[in-house]
Request: fold
Amino acid sequence: MATTTLPESDLPDPGLDAMFAALADPTRRSIVARLTKGEATVNELAEPFAMSLQAVSKHIQVLERAGLVSRGRHRQTRPCRLELEAFRAATDWIEDQRRVWSERLDRLDQHLTDLQRDRKNP
Amino acid sequence: MATTTLPESDLPDPGLDAMFAALADPTRRSIVARLTKGEATVNELAEPFAMSLQAVSKHIQVLERAGLVSRGRHRQTRPCRLELEAFRAATDWIEDQRRVWSERLDRLDQHLTDLQRDRKNP
Reply:
């Protein structure tokens, strides 16, 4: 297998791999969106879906393995909660990219403004 | 197969599915990070990786199918560029979640401050 040498900031991050893979599913994104609002039991999470509790549990397990969701110890309900610190790693990566391209677009914008001004006042 | 009934804002979005799946790989995230800085040819994108051009091309194809990357028409180089509008859909989803939980944490913070104040000045 080929090995990769990546810039330090882009080093392989198995955490990010699993997190983005977990988010590549509408049911799991919906569960994450629900949990941003606070803890919920599996029953509560399953409510909006026309699928079995077992199917919803499997989606939750994928989110748990990705480190995005953890479950409480209360024996009956074991409420699910979002692991904010883990999710922050995914949001940080995305926002880093947005920042870089925003800065680039701002520079382009400034360059075009400069060009127009130079044309008006040569 | 079970069908799902989701809140409108969480409707299945095959675009987001493909985008998050594409980002679940360190080489592809590295390519996206490079392209936020501007267009690049496949040769330029392949430079930091100790893998074949063909392997890098395959990763670029995954990003193209996900709508995140498009390629220019210049016959020789066909430079790759990031499709900002498409990528924005992924960043918007992530940032929506962060906004919801930030507001929740702010409210919790306010609540704790209120509690402390009430304890000091009963």
